[in-house]
Design brief:
Elements: E1 5-8, E2 11-14, H1 15-19, H2 26-29, H3 48-60, H4 65-74, E3 77-80, E4 83-86, E5 88-89, E6 93-94, E7 97-100, E8 103-106, H5 107-113, H6 123-127, E9 130-134, E10 138-142, H7 149-158, H8 162-165, H9 167-174, H10 176-185
Parallel strand pairs: 2-10
Antiparallel strand pairs: 1-2, 3-4, 5-6, 7-8, 9-10
Helix pairs in contact: 3-5, 9-10
C-alpha cells in the first residue's frame, strides 16, 4: 500500500498533490479562491509584511473604494487565533481583490505582471490549492473546495497534476532543485 506522504528535503508532501489532476479555469470559477466565505483571509508570513507594505501604494490603485477604505482604516492584515491573515471584505473577498469581467483577481499580482512591483502575491495564495500545515515541520496538502470542481475537470483534460500546476509557486517557495526532486519522486 502506498504511503499517503512522501518526504522531500524535510518537507512532507501529501500524495494527492502529486496525483490529483488540477488546472485552474478562471472563466468558470471566477476567482473563487480569493472570495471564499470565511472570517479568515489568506494566510501570511511575517516576512511578507514589509514587502507588501512597500508595494501597498501601487496595489491600492487597482482596488475598489470599499477595499481601500478598509485598508486605510484597519490595515491590510490582522491576527486571528494566532494566525496572520489578510483582512477580508464582509467575510468574503480578500481585501486585495479587484474584479475584471466579474473575475476576482489580485491587485498585487496585476501590479507584478505589469512590472510595477517585485512581489507577486502571498505565497499561500500562489500555492493554492496547496496549503502548508506545520506539524513538526512543513506538510503540503491539497485543500479541497467545491468551487474548484472546474479545475479538477480541466486538470483531467490537460493531464496536469496539482504539483505541475503549482510549479512556479513550489519553485518560489522551495527552489528548482527541490521541485525537481518532487517530480522525480513520481517517476519511481
Amino acid at each position: 500500500m502506498a504511503q499517503p506522504f512522501i518526504e522531500i528535503d524535510g518537507v512532507l508532501v501529501n500524495n494527492e498533490v502529486l496525483q490529483t489532476r488540477f488546472y485552474c479555469d478562471l472563466n468558470k470559477c471566477k476567482g473563487a479562491c480569493c472570495t471564499l466565505e470565511s472570517e479568515y483571509g489568506a494566510p501570511l508570513l511575517e516576512e511578507e509584511l514589509p514587502v507588501m507594505e512597500e508595494a501597498l501604494p501601487i496595489a491600492l490603485e487597482y482596488l475598489p473604494e470599499e477595499h481601500r477604505a478598509i485598508i486605510e482604516k484597519k490595515n491590510f492584515f490582522e491576527r486571528k487565533d494566532g494566525e496572520l491573515v489578510t483582512r477580508s471584505v464582509n467575510n468574503r473577498a480578500c481585501v486585495f481583490v479587484f474584479y475584471e469581467n466579474q473575475v476576482a483577481k489580485c491587485a498585487y499580482e496585476r501590479a507584478y505582471f505589469e512590472g510595477r512591483i517585485k512581489f507577486r502575491k502571498p505565497i499561500s495564495c500562489h500555492l493554492f490549492p496547496i496549503r502548508i500545515n506545520n506539524f513538526m515541520g512543513e506538510v503540503l496538502k491539497y485543500e479541497r473546495f467545491s468551487e474548484c470542481t472546474p479545475a479538477l475537470e480541466t486538470g483531467i483534460k490537460e493531464n496536469t497534476t496539482i504539483a505541475e500546476f503549482c510549479k512556479d509557486s513550489l519553485e518560489r517557495k522551495y527552489g528548482t532543485e527541490w521541485y525537481s526532486k518532487l517530480i522525480q519522486s513520481t517517476k519511481k
